[in-house]
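We close this part of the discussion by returning to an individual protein. The encoding preserves chain order, so positions in sequence and tokens coincide. The sequence in question and its structure tokens are set out directly beneath this paragraph:

===
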Amino acid sequence: MIDLHTHTNVSDGTDTPRELVNKALAQGITVLGLTDHDTVGGWDEATSALRPGIDLVLGSEISAQTVDGISVHILGLLFDRHNAELAQILTDTRDNRIGRMERIISKLNSAGYDITMEDVQAQLSQGATLGRPHLADALVAKKIVKSREEAFNELLHNSSPHYVGHYSPTPEVAIEHIKKAGGVAIIAHPFASLRGRTISVESFAPLVAAGLDGIEIEHRDHSTPDRQLCREIVNTYGLIETGSSDYHGTGKLNLLGESTTTSENWEILAARATGGEVVRA
């Protein structure tokens, strides 16, 4: 099984990179993509945990935003971690998350919720990329809500009065820099409408021009019509279809390997990468 989109506690998952590799191996995953948000911080630990039977694809899920404020996530795989321009984009995006979190907390405080930045930071593992899931965990710890899911449904969704946008590169810029760093670029769950506004079909032309390689189609947040629309786009532009779990440990319901990529499509993607290689034990 090939699962190209997972997270650890280096961003907003709950497993350590080592735990993720061990779970993936136990569950029959043969190719595992490690794609923490806006960071490569889990790469070394995951690599050191490898054993025969599983290949590791190192990457990152880059937070991007269109000029009209629509959130888009781009999976960059097999890029050169030492590429200075891409590394700077990841750093700038992570740094901006601190100010954004402070503004969200201020809005929650104004609405009567007793939560502090210290409460949120207590939920982070060392060096983790800060995100709303950590705020959700803090709200659970303070017994304001019962679960991450309730926190997002009630307080932290993109249409909430407490929502605050954040700095992100445009999807085109993210894709261009992934490609310059020798990686492959896949748009993650592009029509997952439960997460907020989604991009239009027309938006794909400039993404393809920037170098987009594929579309994550098989994903639990895509309906059957969403998947069909994605396949039409794949056929129009000659893109590569992928499927992934978007696993977050206990942070989400998503299960390792619940959606996968075919070996044929993975071989095409891997052959396009020049910045990094698949890691094997």
